[in-house]
Structure formats: structure tokens, C-alpha cells
């Protein structure tokens, strides 16, 4: 693609880019000024970038904040993921200070790669380094998460904590944790945010999507929920749903629900992420329940012992 | 692949010795990629680059006689490879080309006018430029190759012979050693051509033509005022001059000229043309000029066992993007040598397809330049072409077919074959025919 002009007007050795940043005559690429967004999370990506000078901050939006994933330095490649997986941009790239970037057009890049596949060696090397770094980060996060969940012994507090974690990793409009009461044989909400914060909702096993997930133990992603015969319409407008079971030693004792009222759809990656979180949450929940039962039993023993003393 | 590897002893091993004759871009690209690829498979190669020229010297001593334009595609490809051109190497970042004809001028730019084309000096530059904070492109690449582990020896190889099925190199009549692979990456102006012709495996000097290069000294501000960040191209009806380009670089503008039987006098003929005079300021000085040879026809036999010819010594792109061809062929030779082997059969199977594809592509190039010649010589066609380009510009939704074709021809940004097939666009040709018809009515 080229732009075309019938006139040339050149003034001096420095050119002023669209954003007002000044470039020296021997510099290549385009300059972004401090704070300027190079690409935004959710956008379609047709270009990859190579950082020539300056720094770029990569951030990801969660429900409560923007998390900085990386600060990139000169020579690094970024924005390559959207080119290879054809999904929207997974994060936002912002210039830190005056930053010079070279744009690599997708069509040209793939055309060159088709002739010389070894060109991707460098891209693979960059991606491998990132996966390695992410693995290390993920290990730290998981350890931290397990530590937090192990520490919590109150079931209600734990439900709120788990839901907050789920909300941080998966942006959604509504969410809830429902636990099954073995005595009353009902599934009821223990923690919620958004429009699902209706505490009166109660379901029997097999009823509704949540009841069915509890029954089958199968995590589900339903993106056109109104077409699903199991869906029970309520006051709110729900378009897509994620529902994963809480399970311990083969026994399903609850579910985590996430839903969107807007057009935003969940992906299979969201489902995998929530399912992974539910695995940790199940252990933590069972610990809390065991502790709670133990405490009740201990209290009961103490109470009986006290009564015996009184007699 | 495995069959060939098992059947002969021509696979490179850890510690193999490779000689690179010529430290220009092809030799450096080969060395950089061969070292990197060998490391990937856990091997270390001993690569020696024989280059007598000192690329840190100003004037003809360090010069490799070239226009010095790195295309948009090569700048981007090198960046993906991790070779980012620093501003100490790039004389000027280019974001547009301006085409001048006797019927008017038209400017074609990159999207958002991003500076994606680099002008460089292959040596430091014209005599007297020393002391400036710039580095030559060839020196930059040679240093990268040395950084990867190659050894640079400032020796001129004057003799090669086979001993025990291995090529042995000599400099100043003294034996250097035998090598597992010798790669010829010298230019067509080099004396090394004769050395390899004498080996008797069938290698013949490439077919050549003569170009004219002149360095026009101008004040830095004047270059910015008159040339901006554009390369200026001239398609003018001057006898025997096919086209000319003015490439701005710091305090000089490099004039490159192609034509039939080019002589130094033809440079003056071009500079005296009224269209050229409009582009240049009144006072300027020509500080340096030469008539270098250009490869326009690849040798038929570019390899034998343990010897391969590359870049200008082998096949290169016609008239444009010689540096892009140096990258493609240097890397193709490195891939073959490291991952496959260094026998004649290996080069034929894995290197020759790249070599041949450039030769075939140049046939399309010849056709496109022949068409350009017709447009250059015919006033009506030339005017019609400019009008179509201008109309494409005015229409935001237009796919700018002719503009992108012209851009790709002049920048060397695309294979000639692809440009040729795009030039068959029915819509574009109908637009051109309509324009020619309109102009014919007006002219006659």
C-alpha cells in the first residue's frame, strides 16, 4: 500500500510526524510521543512492530485495573500474536517517552515467510522467551493464589475471594458462586456481582444451565444462551454464559457462573481459565468446609463436655 | 535430504572451515546467518571473510560503487531478523519517491509517510567526508558478522586450486589453508572473477552493463529543502539514458544513471535537462564520479563441490534492490551449507531454486523496463500514465493499482513477476486506455 501526492513540500532535515515528535534524518520508522497508544486491546491487528528506540508498555485490562505485562526495550518485536492467531489484540501497547517504531505489514511479512520460512526463527525465539517468562510469572501467581486460598477458612469470605479472582482474569458483566445444600437439595448463591446478585435464586439438580453443570460435572461455554433449552430467563438480559463445576473427590458441590449481558462473547480460553481457577477453588472450599465442620464438631463436643460438667 | 547426507561426506561439521571471498553485504549476510544457524544445531563454524578494502575509509578506497538504497521490504525483513539499522548507518530515512517526466511530476509515498527506506553509503562516502559521525553499511554488516564469530582478514585472494578434493586459497602467492567451503561473494568489478573462472568448473563472469554514479555535494539544508525525504526519479526523453535517480544522503546527493553505453558525458547531459535543473539548486559541485559495472546476466554454473558463487558474482536483481538480492542469496547459501551440505548436488537441490527464481524474475523485470522505455519515449503515454496516477490519488477508495505498480518498480520492493501480473489488471488498463483516448483527441 502506498499513499500518493502530486506535490512535494520539504522544509528542513527534521520531519515532524503526525504526533508532533521530531525525527532525525537518519532515523527510520515512526515516532510515538509519550503516552500515545500504538495499538489497543481488542483491536484487529494487521501489523507487527519492531521497537527501534525508546520503550513500550504492554498492559491488559481487568475488571478493576490495568495490569502491566511487560516493558519492552529497543530491538524487541511486539504485536506479533494477533498476526499469527488472527484474534483481536490481547493487550494494549503504549509509548513510554518518545518511542520510534517500525511497522511490519502482515501481508508482506507472510509473503516473505512463504518464500523463506527461516524468517520466523527470530519471531519464534521472541515468543519462546515470552512463554518462558510467562511460565515463571504464572508459577509465582499460582503459588500466591494457592497460599491465599489455603489461608481462608470462612466459606462466605472464600466465595467472595474466588469470585474476585475470577473477575480479575475474565472481564464479564455478571458472576456468581452457587453451592449445593445437601440437606435441602438446592443450589443457592453464596457470592455474586452484577445483575446476578439476586440471592433468592435457587435451583434443584439438573435445573437450568447451572443445575445441569452440577449434575454432569462438565464445564460449559454457551454463547447464544437464549437458544439453549436449559436456560431459565430472568429479569436480566443475558447473552453468553460460562459455567464450571466445583468438584472434590468426584463430588460436585457447586458451580462458578460468569455471564455477559452485552455482545462480548466468551472464548474457549476463558472457559479453560475459569476451569483451572475452579480446580484450586474446589480444594480451598473443601478445606474451609472441613475446617468449618471440624469447628462445629469441636464446639459440639465442648458444649457436651460443658453440659456433662454442669450435671 | 537424509539420503544425500548419508551418501557423501559433504556435510559441514563442528569446527568446519569456510572462506568468504568478499566482505560486502552478501558475504556478511552469509556469515551472519551461517554462524547463527550452526549455533542453533549446536555447531561452531570457523568462517574467515577475505576483504582487502577498508570500509571505514572515505573516497574510492572504501567504496563499493552502488546507489546505496535499502528497500522498504529489506529494512522490514532485516528488522524481523533482529538487524535494525542505526541512524549512524542510515544517511537519510526515505518516505517517498518523486517521479519527474517532461509532462509533470508525481510523488508516491509510504502509508502515513513512515520512513521505511534507507539511503546508505557502502563505503564512508566521497573523499573528504571523514570525521562525520556516520558508518558505512558494509562496515556495519561486516562488524555484525565478526560479532557473530567470523574472522575478517584484509587479504586479496589471488589464487584458488583443488587439493585432495578441497579448495585451497592463496594470497600473495602464499598458501593460506584448505577449506571445507569457499563462497564467492565478490562484486563484478573485482579481480576475483578471473580467479574463479580459472578453476575450470564452468564459472564465467556475469554479463554486465555500465552505470554512472556521481556524488553531488550540497549544503545539508539545501538537500532538505530541495529533496526532503524523497528519492527523485527521472524518466526523460534523453537519448541512451533509460532512467536516473537522485538519492539524498546527508551533505551529498548520489546520482545514479542507467542507459546504453553510459559515459561520463551523459551525466552532464542529464544535469543540463530543464526538468533536472528545476529539481537541483543553481550552484552545486560534483565531488566524485565513477562508471561501475552492473550484473545483468547470471553465470550458468555458479557452484561445484565446496564452492558456490553468490550475490553480484552470481545472480542478482535487475537494476534494483541488489542489497535485497544479497540478503536472499547469502541466506540461501547459508541454509544449504549448514542444514544440507556443500556438494554440487546439495547446491543444485537447495540453493539453485533461489538462484534460478531471481533469473526468471529478471525476465519479467526486463519486460517491465521495456514497457517503461515505451512510456518514457512517448509523450502521450507518459502524460496518460501521470493522469491516471493523479486520479487514483484523488479517489480515497481507489486501490491505487498503477501507483503501487510504479512504487514497486522504482523501489525494488516487490518481485518483478508479481508486479507483472498486477499490471494485467483489467480495471487499470481500461483506465489507462480511456486516458490515452482522451489525450489523443486533444493532441490531434
Write a brief structural summary.
The complex is a heterodimer of chains A (311) and B (444). By secondary structure, chain A is of the alpha+beta class. Chain A has helices spanning 81-85, 106-115, 120-151, 155-169, 208-216, 268-310, and strands at residues 3-5, 15-16, 22-23, 30-32, 37-39, 47-61, 66-72, 77-78, 92-105, 174-181, 186-193, 202-203, 220-222, 240-248, 251-260.
Molecular structure report:
The complex is a heterodimer of chains A (311) and B (444). By secondary structure, chain A is α+β, with helices and mostly antiparallel strands. Chain A folds into two domains: 15-118, Jelly Rolls, CATH 2.60.120.10; 143-310, Beta-Lactamase (2-Layer Sandwich), CATH 3.30.450.40. In chain A, 37% of the residues lie in helices and 29% in strands. Chain A has six helices and 15 strands. Chain A has helices at residues 81-85, 106-115, 120-151, 155-169, 208-216, 268-310; strands at 3-5, 15-16, 22-23, 30-32, 37-39, 47-61, 66-72, 77-78, 92-105, 174-181, 186-193, 202-203, 220-222, 240-248, 251-260. In chain A, the strands form three sheets. In chain A, strands 4, 5, 6, 7, 8 and 9 form a six-stranded antiparallel sheet that branches. In chain A, strands 12-11-10-15-14-13 form a six-stranded antiparallel sheet, with helices on both faces. In chain A, strands 2-3 form a two-stranded antiparallel sheet. In chain A, a hairpin with an 8-residue loop joins strand 11 (186-193) and strand 12. In chain A, helix 4 (155-169) runs antiparallel to helix 6 (268-310). Chain A is elongated. Chain B is of the alpha+beta class. Chain B folds into three domains: 8-55 and 137-206 and 298-361, FAD/NAD(P)-binding domain (3-Layer(bba) Sandwich), CATH 3.50.50.60; 90-117 and 208-294, D-Amino Acid Oxidase, Chain A, domain 2 (2-Layer Sandwich); 378-443, no CATH class. Helices cover 40% and strands 23% of the residues of chain B. Chain B has 14 helices and 20 strands. Chain B has helices at 2-7, 25-40, 72-81, 137-148, 192-197, 220-227, 264-271, 274-279, 322-340, 344-377, 379-394, 401-411, 416-422, 426-443, and strands at residues 17-21, 46-50, 69-70, 92-94, 96-101, 104-109, 117-119, 151-153, 159-163, 166-171, 174-178, 181-184, 207-217, 230-234, 241-249, 252-259, 285-290, 293-297, 303-304, 307-309. In chain B, helix 10 (344-377) crosses helix 11. Mean pLDDT of chain B is 88; it is low at 1-5. The chains are: A alpha+beta (311), B alpha+beta (444). Chains A and B meet through strand 1, strand 6, strand 9, helix 2 and helix 3 of A and helix 2, helix 3, strand 6, helix 6 and helix 9 of B. Strand 1 (3-5) of chain A pairs antiparallel with strand 6 of chain B.
